[in-house]
């Protein structure tokens, strides 16, 4: 008899997105994104971090203060990195992401041809950025949906004995 507690496709791709987010150096928020074709192939991964060539030790990671003393003007979000890292056309793909996309990422998602967003958290729901994001996504006909799962977590082990 086959296992019955295996993860479904949505859980799998969200898990890959969350694992990608573990690469982020951001001390407060680690977000990952995973872009998937209609036939369930991963074609892009990303996480929030500084642009290539910018040292993680030379730029601020603060959330508050003067604009240029915070992370906000410097960090690329996971969605944009996944789009930029994609290995082929991402038209009609889905993107799995931990946090609902901000308005800047939504513009990139729309322009790239992604057709669906699957998100885990909408913690910024109702903010100006969120309202702008949803307005554009609705106008462009992009589907967005919160991940539905009964799981609270998926655990990974790096212990050799577990395999």
Can you put this structure into words, describing what you see?
The protein is 26% helix and 17% strand. It has four helices and five strands; from the N terminus they run H-E-E-H-E-H-E-H-E. A five-stranded mixed β-sheet has the order 2-1-3-4-5. The model has no long low-confidence stretch (mean pLDDT 96). It starts with 8 loop residues before the first helix and ends in a 17-residue tail after the last strand. Helix 3 (103-112) runs parallel beside helix 4 (128-140). It is of the alpha/beta class and 163 residues long. It has helices at residues 9-21, 78-84, 103-112, 128-140, and strands spanning 32-36, 42-47, 94-99, 116-121, 143-146. Helix 4 (128-140) links the parallel strand 4 and strand 5.
Distance between the termini: 20 Å
Strand content: 15-25%
SSE succession: HEEHEHEHE
Number of strands: 5
Radius of gyration: 17 Å
Percent of residues in helices: 25-40%
Largest sheet: 5 strands, mixed
Keyword list:
163 residues; alpha/beta; 5 strands; 5-stranded mixed sheet
Summarize it.
With 163 residues, this protein is of the alpha/beta class.
């Amino acid at each position: 008899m086959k296992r019955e507690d295996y993860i479904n496709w949505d859980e799998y791709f969200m898990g890959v997105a969350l694992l990608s987010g573990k690469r982020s150096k951001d001390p407060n928020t680690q977000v990952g994104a995973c872009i998937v074709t209609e036939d369930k192939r991963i074609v892009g991964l990303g996480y929030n971090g500084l642009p290539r060539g910018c040292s993680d030790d030379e730029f601020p990671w603060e959330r508050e203060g003067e604009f240029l003393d915070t992370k906000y003007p410097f960090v690329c979000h996971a969605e944009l990195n996944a789009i930029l890292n994609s290995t082929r056309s991402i038209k009609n793909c889905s993107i799995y992401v931990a946090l609902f996309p901000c308005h800047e990422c939504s513009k990139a998602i729309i322009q790239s041809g992604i057709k669906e967003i699957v998100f885990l958290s909408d913690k910024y729901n109702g903010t100006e950025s969120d309202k702008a994001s949803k307005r554009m996504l609705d106008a462009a006909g992009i589907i967005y949906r919160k991940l539905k799962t009964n799981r609270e977590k998926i655990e990974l082990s790096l212990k050799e004995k577990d395999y």
